[in-house]
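#struct-help
A.M.: can someone run this one for me? Single chain, 236 residues.
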Amino acid sequence: MTEEGSASKTDGDVVGLPNFWLDALKHHVIVNDMISERDEDVLSLVTDVQFVPLENGFSLLFVFPADNEFFTESQISKTVLTKKVFGEEAFDRTIESPITWRDGKDVTVETITKKQTNKAKKGAVRYVSKTEPCDSFFNMFKHHDDPEEMEQYCSMAHAIGKLSRYAVDCVTGIAPDGSSDVEDDEDDEMYGDDEEDEEDSEDEMPAPKRGGAKGGRGGSSSGPGAAAGEKECKQQ
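D.P.: on it. Structure tokens below:
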């Protein structure tokens, strides 16, 4: 593990703080807004989060147990590539690894059942079920063609990448929670990178927008997410 105290290996078994990465992610207000109750069950299984700076962007990797009950992959990733626009770094495009959800375990969709009445036959009713997208942290690992949605999820991924560098402090409550408008300046001063090249690469990234990406419990009512107070997703 890259974070001291988050987990250790003894006789081949991984041990550590229960829900370590879930608690670290929920400490950040932007990220917490994206996590639904169903997401928590999946994120509680995360064993590592890795942020890899690239020459023109970064990759974010989530590691899970190989035999987890939600999907067949043991790792899922999102790569964000950037380009220069008027001399400044801007998000260009993304590459997401596919998630193969097990039957009934996809937390990015919900099954809605509606009652229909037969107007031609009095008293006759039927129930029709259909699957629809719903708010989920894991929508970040889907491809988004809409430029605004793509930028929001890229900002979200960048915020998680920064968080992963001081996850222990997030769990203990020492780290900034992302609520300050000057978060980037404070974080860079308090948590500088060991390597200058990595620091330059991350500092040039567009800063996460306050409020996070659309979706989750605190997202916008448009796009892939819905505002707080909407019904929770039902298990497919």
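A.M.: thanks! DSSP finds seven helices and eight strands in the chain.
D.P.: also worth noting: The longest strand covers residues 75-85.
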